[in-house]
Amino acid sequence: MSSPATSTAPPAVRPALVPVLIYLAMLVAVISSLGAPLIPAIAEANDVSVTSAQWSLTVTLVVGAVATPVIGRLGDGRHRRAVVLVVLSIVLLGSVLAALPLGLGWLVAGRGLQGLGLGVTPLAIATARTALAGDQARSTAAALSVTVAAGVGLGYPVTGAIAEVGGVHAAFWFGAAASAVAIVAAALVYPPSADVPPRRLDVAGAVLLGTALSAGLLALGEAERWGWTSPAVLGLTALSLVTVVAWAVWQLRAEAPLVDLRLARSRTAATAHGAALLVGLANYLLLSSVPRLAQEPESTGYGFGASIVVAGLALLPFSVASFLGGRFAPQLRRAVGQRLVIPVGAVVLGIGEVLVGFVREDLWQLFAAMAVAGLGVGTVFAALPGLIVSTVPPGETGSAMSLNQVMRYVGFAIGSAAGATVLEAATAAGEESPATTGYEGIGLIGLGACVVLAVLTATLPDRATTR
């Protein structure tokens, strides 16, 4: 009898599976960051502040962080293919809603629905492991992890060009068309899952996680406007802390937890999940602020007055370098050893953070800094799946990767909200643009995250990284 690894996809469509999985991961990466280069234009079109418009990016990441473990748990069973198709359909609906000129509230609601798509990537990684075999399974999983970073920047110049010609909402129509293609491709190629018993969904865990993230990020995102010691900010912060503790306790005690935190009890697994959060934070500090930096008027003394297209192109080097970082990670592993791959990537990303913060007198320097940062991000993301898979049984791959994606998306959301807050704090009353110290602060915060990431992963025992 053939094993599940060789019988889950019909032979006629198996060659197309890897490209389709990568396309799905690329799509959700583009969708997740679709609003970043458009934030100034969204603010202008809806007559709101840039900080308010930032929620068109942050809300997608918040919903994605909550939806990822839910979708991962639903997709761990026999209904993985159906789950993927339903989620893609909801993403299409959200894309259409964001594309319609109904105001910022509806745009943010549509972007929230798009955030459900972020749960597709861990399912794609789990599918690669069960439907493919040997080196192909491992290389595809690594490619999918890197695609999360590379796809972000590749979508920027495309959507920027579309928005430049057809307006802000035209970029979201592009997202709708790309989502429709994904539905068709998945319907034709995505393999059925093994016939395993269904797993109960932890609704209480999802509610607690959603409450913790929403309250915490709302407090962080609005603290500068409301006041750091205002009752609203303090209350939301307290609510976030209480619910995140309650969520963790519930996950450890629940019979069928949303995310089995017991899988993260080993030092290696816990470090891998912490690394995902830190690199996600450092990553999105840049991805959410660099497009705005490029579009700041030259009258600020540091801005470049770039168009949306050029602002998107500033992130193209990031995507290319992220891809190359993932491709060169195996060679780096052979050169420095498995234990030092992530620390080296963290150091490179930290250099990129410093360059963006302090070395950007000319536009080409901003492009170069993003290339350096992308190289570091791609290296780290390529190394994380192997670290996770080495610590969990095959049947829990989906749940373990979902937790890692959750931490990554939490980092993304924190980076997006924190970047907006730092720039808001650096903006003087009556001014539209922040002082250059705002972008310097973002670089320093990103550098700090990279230093912590390097120290945590460099101190892992050799045996933990070579299993």
Automatic annotation (TrEMBL):
Keyword Amino-acid biosynthesis carried by entry: no
GO MF term set: transmembrane transporter activity
Protein's name in the database: MFS family permease
Query: Coiled-coil ranges per the record?
Result: none
**Record-annotated Major facilitator superfamily (MFS) profile domain positions:** 17-466
The membrane spanning regions, by residue number, are 20-43, 55-75, 82-107, 113-132, 139-158, 170-189, 201-220, 232-250, 270-290, 302-328, 340-360, 366-388, 409-429, 441-460
Topology of the protein relative to the lipid bilayer: Multi-pass membrane protein
Q: Read off the InterPro entries from this record.
A: MFS, MFS_dom, MFS_trans_sf
* Compartments where found: Cell membrane
Q: Which UniProt keywords apply?
A: Cell membrane, Membrane, Transmembrane, Transmembrane helix, Transport
Q: State whether keyword Transport applies.
A: yes
Q: What does the entry list under GO cellular component?
A: plasma membrane
Which Pfam families does the protein's record reference?
MFS_1
Q: Which PROSITE patterns match?
A: MFS
